[in-house]
User: What shape does this take?
Amino acid sequence: MNNQTPELIEIAKEMRRVSDRLDKASKSMYGFADQKAEKEREYRMRLSQEIMKVRATGLPATLVLDVAKGNVADLKYERDLSADTFKAAIESLGAIKVQASLLQSIHKRHTDL
Assistant: This one.
């Protein structure tokens, strides 16, 4: 049987598209990881500065951390959002890998027929 059936050609084209998506997604992961780390660093630095400011006001020590965290809540939001975006990107990359694996299995099955 001819291995160049239209179905096999389409599967090969789709495998190429998925491969390109996988390559692009894996390269973008570095950007997400960098952003996640940067947001974490920014939040921690600003939180420590805020703790020192709030402590200097004479507020009871048991309240200092809560007030300081409240004052930098926007940075915490950005930090959490970047962490969740990174997790979503990892899951998306995994889904693309599964799709690639499925296409490879289908391709192999077609070539074995």
Q: What stands out?
A: The chain has one domain: 6-112. The two ends are 8 Å apart (CA to CA). The chain has a mean pLDDT of 92.
